């Protein structure tokens, strides 16, 4: 599957392309010239033989082959359906049109180049228009400055005595003061009392409400990439004007509740057998009688609290949580879809203090056997007097009741305290009320224990992702280890490519309501579920029909053992059918966490199959006490050369496959008093195997039953090999 080659001195350049001559974009121009020159040469020789005088008087002209109108129309129509025809399609088209296959190939290459140039020209025009708008806006600011007056005395400002930025900030501060006063009065009218901040156990004096909502008018929605949003998410829109005062009231009350939930101990919180905090529901109802109403019939309470210290400063962490794209990327294994419907406030004083936004999100467990949880909520961020930041979410179901809603989020979020050396202490509270009757029996215990969607999973994911970000920004990389990528730009682009691979894997494995899974015949819990997607005009995925297949099953082996077995290149040949039994070697890696299993690797398979000589495997493995993942995708060797030299990774086509390894939730009693490492080594595992395979390169093609059967057999054989290998190890 891969060309045998050992990476030696500088791993940022993989010189493994002995048969590669030119890039595809240059090929049409070079080959067209050669083709036309060949045709012209024979014609020129005939002219020379006929008349030597003609040769002396007239310069030789190159003859160009012009396609007929019919040929052009036929190829244009085919290009709209399939811009990348394969050899078989080119031969068939050339036979129909009376052309050589090379002529068809060069026409399509030139057409793609032409379309790319046209797109770039359109993009340049848009950028030029945006530039003109910015110039005009700059002129308006300058004109406003010339007429500005002092907010204190009302006289003209001394522009020459201060910088443009300083003067602009002074004007902005005056506007914000007026806005805070106006909104504070509105909020106090609806809330009926000021905000109260609670210390560890003793109430503090009441402080004035500082909400800082900048505008109640219509605001542009800020949305993340929607791979597939569910029915509830698609049906929601920005809140109406009459709902906004109630949203403010709910946000302020939720912030008050979160502070108390994060700081108060017993009797509100009790310790479980595995050391986690469990909510005392009776005490909660007594402590918070208002809330968002009683628990709906048939819903189950699921609440937990967790504390951790992470390697990220408090300001950056708040900004990550308040940016929908960064938040959903950081927690890609938990958040499958996130959209900001409306921003009610961007905060005051140039930061997120007082920021308020209405959002929807879909929370997932990486298995098609566990339904996702869709929520419509408001997110509120505030900095308190002691310097602690708090970010809270609370459901807005009371404004938009939905008969299909299966969960709602009571005040949940985190408190963030600044720590020395760029660290932050995070106290996370997660509080769901959920109808989980749709969960498969295989995952019932894990979900009901609260570990599937609880605070511990959020915190451990945050800790691991903070370590990954720190690794991406590291500059003091040791050069002694063989295979370590030291090129700074190469590290960043390779990590970015791996991040996109991981997000794509999670997006295609969950039981989102936007996914239509079809169950193939199996044996109950081991059923294979498949779905198809069309990939068109996406530079990050190969064009055509993509078949996703996934299955989940239980193993009587601890999660850590399963994880290290699947990520180890030495044992890969035991389960990877596509490697054809070849020896797998790690060519390069980037460590991105304390655990040696947390890394991005570039693998090569020594295979006798010549068609696999230009391919490598990009793999990311990550583990924490709540979940582990091994995700990989074949990548072209030329594309990886570009990435390792700092090139754009967004145009590398990926179809990720991999494994999600979760604890079975049955080890709670055995883990009483055990540490993190000991906890990870106990109990059984829930393993999800997922493949994404391109079954046809034409997006308009029909899926054949043979393709489905092939993928079904592939995943079934992989599962059997994993069970057999781990059963021998366990014995």
From TrEMBL:
This is Homeobox-leucine zipper protein HDG2 isoform X3. Residues 58-69 have a biased composition (Basic residues). GO terms for biological process: cell differentiation. Its main location: nucleus. Residues 240-471 form the START domain. Belongs to the HD-ZIP homeobox family. Class IV subfamily. Residues 58-118 form the Homeobox domain. One of its GO terms (molecular function) is DNA binding. Residues 117-144 form a coiled coil. It holds the Pfam family PDF2_C. Residues 44-57 have a biased composition (Basic and acidic residues). Gene3D superfamilies: 3.30.530.20, Homeodomain-like. It comes from Rhizophora mucronata. One of its GO terms (cellular component) is nucleus. Keywords: Coiled coil, DNA-binding, Homeobox, Nucleus, Transcription, Transcription regulation. Residues 17-69 are annotated as: Disordered. Residues 60-119 bind DNA. CDD domains: homeodomain, START_ArGLABRA2_like. InterPro entries: HD (IPR001356), HD-Zip_IV (IPR042160), HD-Zip_IV_C (IPR057993), Homeobox_CS (IPR017970), Homeodomain-like_sf (IPR009057), START-like_dom_sf (IPR023393), START_lipid-bd_dom (IPR002913). It comes from the Eukaryota. The keyword Cell membrane does not apply. It is found in: Nucleus.
